[in-house]
């Protein structure tokens, strides 16, 4: 089964410009090959305030997403140092 990928608007404007081309290509490939096919296998369920969200680790970056039916909503692609602090603000907004 193939999932439909949907992106938060801040990814294009805020997250991607901060990522170098090599990592951006690696993240794009991981999203298209892993999350679009089996997000529940490759992702890891988060805990505490983000317990209904998942993460995919790609190098030093975290792809934070939520699975709903046949869609994967990607809320952020953020460096691991800032990922959880920034994603909570983005989800609450």
Task: Kindly describe this structure.
The chain has about 90 residues and is α+β, with helices and mostly antiparallel strands. It has a single domain (about 5-90), classed as YaeB-like fold (2-Layer Sandwich), CATH 3.30.2310. Helix content is about 40%, strand content about 30%. The protein is globular, with a radius of gyration of 12 Å.
Question: Brief overview, please?
Answer:
The chain is an alpha+beta fold and 93 residues long. It has four helices and five strands, in the order E-H-H-H-E-E-E-E-H.
Topology:
Elements: E1 4-7, H1 9-15, H2 21-35, H3 39-42, E2 44-45, E3 54-58, E4 61-68, E5 71-79, H4 83-92
Parallel strand pairs: 1-5
Antiparallel strand pairs: 2-3, 3-4, 4-5
Which descriptors would you attach to this protein?
YaeB-like fold; 93 residues; single chain; 5-stranded mixed sheet; globular; alpha+beta
């Amino acid at each position: 089964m193939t999932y439909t990928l949907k992106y938060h608007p801040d990814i294009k404007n805020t997250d991607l410009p901060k990522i170098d081309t090599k990592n951006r290509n690696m993240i794009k490939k991981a999203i298209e090959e892993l999350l679009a096919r089996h997000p529940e296998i490759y992702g890891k369920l988060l805990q505490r305030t983000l317990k209904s969200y998942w993460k995919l680790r790609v190098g030093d970056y975290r792809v934070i997403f939520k699975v709903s039916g046949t869609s994967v909503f990607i809320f952020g692609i953020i460096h691991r140092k800032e990922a959880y602090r920034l994603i909570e603000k983005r989800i609450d907004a």
